[in-house]
Amino acid sequence: MTAALSILSARPTASEARVIGPVGATNAAWLTRHLGELEGDITLDCSQLQLQDARGAHALVEFGRRLERHGRRLVLRGLPAAADRVFERIISA
Length: 93
Hints:
The protein has a single domain, classed as 2-Layer Sandwich (Transcription Regulator spoIIAA). 39% of the residues lie in helices and 34% in strands. It is built from three helices and four strands. It has helices spanning 28-35, 54-69, 81-92, and strands at residues 4-10, 14-23, 41-51, 74-77. Strands 1-2-3-4 form a four-stranded mixed beta sheet, with helices on one face. Helix 2 (54-69) crosses helix 3. The longest helix has 16 residues, at 54-69.
């Protein structure tokens, strides 16, 4: 099972997308590659995100850091509690 990525809106200064389903080592590169095609800051609706493993979260954190180096932001919205705890551990490490 792979994650689905829905682009909700895309503008020159900001984009909004939704990720649905599992994200892990097998599809994190695919997800970040497609997110990288979006313009401006990116808000990602993660309310239906399922982390298969920590590598999916690591990939999104690193993607966010790459955006920051280019003056852009990645905002994760609606993270399920379990996924939020994984992201917190990665970011605070």
